[in-house]
Specification:
Elements: H1 3-6, H2 16-22, H3 25-35, H4 37-57, E1 62-70, H5 94-103, H6 105-121, H7 145-155, E2 156-160, E3 166-173, H8 176-232, H9 241-281, H10 284-293, H11 296-318, H12 322-355, H13 360-397, H14 402-437, E4 442-446, H15 459-484, H16 491-495, E5 501-506, H17 516-520, H18 522-525, H19 530-543, E6 553-558, H20 565-578, E7 583-587, H21 595-598, H22 607-611, H23 617-620, E8 622-623, E9 629-632, H24 641-645, H25 648-660, E10 663-667, H26 676-683, E11 686-692, H27 698-712, E12 716-724, E13 733-741, E14 747-755
Parallel strand pairs: 5-12, 6-10, 6-11, 7-9, 7-10, 11-12
Antiparallel strand pairs: 1-3, 1-4, 2-3, 8-9, 13-14
Helix pairs in contact: 3-15, 4-15, 5-13, 6-7, 6-8, 8-14, 9-13, 9-14, 10-13, 11-12, 11-13, 12-13, 19-20
Length: 757
């Protein structure tokens, strides 16, 4: 292979890099778009049309919102302990739990029942969408309860506003009226449920506290009577300061223990009640949940926290100095807070594991049972810690002098019963007030209003996105098509491979007033046309392409059939003839000859007949309408064209023509099809390779170019890009003027473009 071809240099020795440096990627991209503008426009409008049809057929969706404030319980009867120092230390998850309850199947079913009542009393059933039966014959009938319940889980979303005790119930529906109705009914139904649930628990608690209060008032009366009787009998009337302090401390913690035991009863009662309800659903679940809640590590954390809380309370009761109290509180909080944090995280994991994948209709009672179990274990830990503490004080109490021990015992009993009774009385009054004033833990802040405009679809946005997508698809198609299209499209693609371009010939099909044969011989029939100017430029560049050697025999060939090599050969011959050169056009395509049809002549006798010595030279040379141009047809098609063209007779014939003509143009078959062009290339002075824009594959072109330069690189004159459309050209071309004659014979200056030199 020729070294120039291997080293990526063109036929004139010009490195590829200089060509690449001149390329402009942006202009190439614009050219791809320009050449594919029609499919881009079609895809764009198709996308816009589909988008518009989608928008037209889309159902309007209305959206409205109801805002609720969920009141966090502060010392509610169920969750609060009787002694303030031992408030529940769990992290507040109340809002999240309430939202999950609102989403539960139970609540949705209650809402669905209320909505069905509204549907039945409504006169105009057409204002409903989800509440109305979907069957054509039942359009005036309501949908089933289960269908509405399930639909509510889809069209209703409930979320907490971040950082606030506010929940929003958002409803979407094709019916504006139905949207408002569902949102308001949902909020009112949950409000009613919340009030009923809260009052039910408060009533139960009030009755329980009343019963306990009656018992403790009797205990208090008994202890007071015993103390008074002891003093009247002349026993010890006064205790020393140390004994008084010990009695005060023991009575305080004994009251706290008794209060914790009362609290334990309430928690155990609530826990047992929920457990019974849960066992009706699945008997195995309560035992499993209890096992998770009562994990040893969790129990140990509860115990440590309870002990620290009690110690903190004890230290705070001893001192009256504000600074010392604050210091004690800070020291204990430093120990307690990390334990609470760790406890909360562990409980969070347990809760998540127990409620994962739980059906919505069961999640509510699961949550209640888990919370009740956690509360119960916490109270048990606190009660146990108080019992241990009292055991230590009992040992100190036993050391009181014998003459004072009875008075101390009676005083301790009276104080303990008094404190417990006062605590019960306080909680009873609180329960009584709360029962009467309880409105639930939910307040409706803003009721839903009927939306006037649909929230979806956003037609403007959808059409904009559809249009942008259509444009992107169109441009993407253009670049994909360009990537898959391996044909040569412009001169720059040829030059980028290191192959020189002698000229490009514009499309001549626009000259429809000419016949097909006249169109092919355009330099004679339309000498001022732009295509004719290109052939004249080709003539000039061929004449000066090889100054060191004389060019007489020029081969015109192509890579594949149909690239216009015969047209180029005819018009190049005509251009030389117009330049006062004596020219012979020789049809060497002995397989599919065409020159005779262009000149409307008989095919034989011709070249093959002469080489077989059947006719004389004068018999086969035929004139044309141009004075200096003659041509020889192919003649009779031989069975072995390659052998005939490679024969000594052919070589001698060409040598004879050298002496008779200034220029001999050989029209050969396509290079890839047969070996004929290779034979002719060896016996010619130069070879021109024809390329047709948007038809010749780049691979075929490079293969042909490689074979030509392998024969003799110096004989390759360059390539010609045929049928190149200026409309597809871009910024590489400057405006200049071609002259051509209109059909009426008038000359007119026309702006054209030529490649920048």
């Amino acid at each position: 292979m020729n070294p120039n071809f291997k080293k990526n240099v063109d036929s004139q020795g010009k490195p590829f890099s200089t060509v690449h440096m001149q390329s402009n990627n942006l202009k190439e991209y614009l050219n791809v778009i320009r050449n594919n503008i029609l499919p881009i426009i079609l895809i764009f409008f198709a996308s816009v049309l589909v988008t518009i049809l989608y928008v037209i057929n889309s159902i309007n969706i209305y959206k409205t919102t109801t805002t609720l404030k969920i009141v966090r319980p502060q010392g509610s009867i169920l969750s609060a302990q009787l002694i303030p120092e031992f408030q529940d230390f769990q992290t507040d998850r109340y809002i999240s739990n309430e939202i999950e309850i609102m989403k539960s199947f139970t609540i949705r079913e209650k809402v669905a029942n209320s909505l069905l009542d509204s549907f039945r009393v409504s006169g105009d059933k057409s204002v409903f969408y989800y509440l109305r039966s979907r069957s054509p014959e039942g359009s005036q009938n309501p949908a089933s309860l289960i269908a509405i319940t399930k639909e509510l889980g889809v069209i209703v979303s409930i979320n907490q506003k971040r950082g606030l005790d506010i929940a929003e119930i958002e409803v979407q529906s094709p019916s504006s009226y139905e949207t408002q109705l569902i949102a308001n009914v949902y909020a009112e139904t949950y409000l009613k449920y919340s009030v009923e649930y809260a009052r039910r628990e408060l009533t139960t608690m009030k009755d329980f506290l009343e019963e306990e209060k009656s018992k403790k008032i009797n205990d208090l009366n008994t202890s007071e009577a015993s103390l008074q009787d002891y003093q009247q009998k002349g026993g010890v009337i006064f205790l020393d300061d140390k004994a008084k302090l010990l009695v005060e401390q023991i009575s305080t913690f004994e009251a706290q223990k008794n209060s914790a035991e009362v609290d334990l009863k309430t928690k155990d009662r609530a826990y047992s009640e929920i457990k019974r309800e849960l066992e009706k659903i699945d008997k195995s679940v309560p035992n499993y949940i209890e096992g998770q809640i009562n994990q040893p590590y969790v129990a140990e954390l509860e115990k440590k926290i309870a002990e620290l809380e009690i110690q903190k309370s004890l230290e705070l009761t001893i001192s009256s100095d504000p600074k010392l109290i604050e210091k004690v509180r800070a020291e204990f909080d430093k120990k307690i807070i990390p334990l609470k944090t760790e406890y909360d995280e562990r409980i969070k994991l347990i809760r998540a594991g127990l409620t994962a994948n739980t059906p919505s209709e069961k999640s509510n009672i699961y949550q209640k049972f888990i919370e009740a179990g956690i509360d119960l274990q916490s109270v048990k830990a606190r009660t146990a810690s108080l019992s241990n503490l009292l055991s230590k004080y009992e040992r100190d109490f036993a050391k009181i002098p014998s003459q004072s021990i009875e008075l101390a015992r009676l005083e301790r009993s009276r104080k303990s019963n008094e404190k417990l009774f006062l605590a019960l009385e306080e909680k009873y009054q609180e329960a009584l007030v709360n029962e009467r004033a309880q409105l639930g833990n939910v307040n409706i802040i803003d009721k839903a209003i009927q939306p006037l405009k649909p929230a979806k679809p956003n037609r403007t946005l959808i059409i904009s996105i559809g249009s942008a997508l259509g444009l992107l698809l169109g441009v993407g198609f253009a670049f994909l098509r360009n990537y898959l299209d391996r044909t040569i499209k412009n001169p720059e693609e040829i030059e980028s491979k290191g192959v020189s371009v002698l000229t490009w010939v514009p499309s001549i099909e626009e000259l429809s007033e000419l016949g097909s044969s006249q169109l092919e011989f355009i330099v004679a029939n339309k000498p001022n046309a732009s295509a004719s100017e290109s052939f004249k430029a080709l003539r000039t560049r061929v004449m000066y392409s090889k100054l060191e050697t004389e060019l007489k025999i020029i081969l015109v060939t192509s890579s594949v059939p149909g690239e216009g090599k015969t047209t180029v050969a005819i018009n190049l011959s005509g251009s030389f003839a117009l330049a006062d050169k004596k020219v012979l056009l020789l049809d060497c395509d002995l397989r599919k000859p065409r020159i005779h049809s262009v000149f409307k002549s008989e095919r034989f006798p011709g070249l093959s007949d002469y080489l077989f010595s059947n006719v004389t030279l004068e018999d086969i040379i035929r004139p044309t309408k141009l004075q200096n141009l003659s041509f020889i047809t192919s003649g009779t098609i031989p069975p072995n064209p390659s052998e005939l063209l490679g024969s000594k007779q052919m070589s001698d014939f060409l040598e004879k023509l050298r002496g008779l003509y200034d220029i001999v143009i050989l029209d050969s078959p396509p290079f890839i099809s047969v070996t004929d062009p290779e034979i002719l290339s060896r016996i010619s002075d130069g070879t021109i390779l024809i390329v047709q824009a948007n038809k010749t594959p780049m691979d075929a072109f490079l293969k042909t170019y490689g074979r030509i330069v392998n024969i003799d690189n110096h004989k390759f004159l360059g390539s010609v890009l045929n049928n190149f459309s200026l409309k597809s050209a871009y910024g590489y071309y400057y405006n200049y003027y071609y002259y051509y004659s209109k059909p009426d014979g008038m000359d007119k200056r026309r702006s054209k473009q030529i490649k920048k030199s």
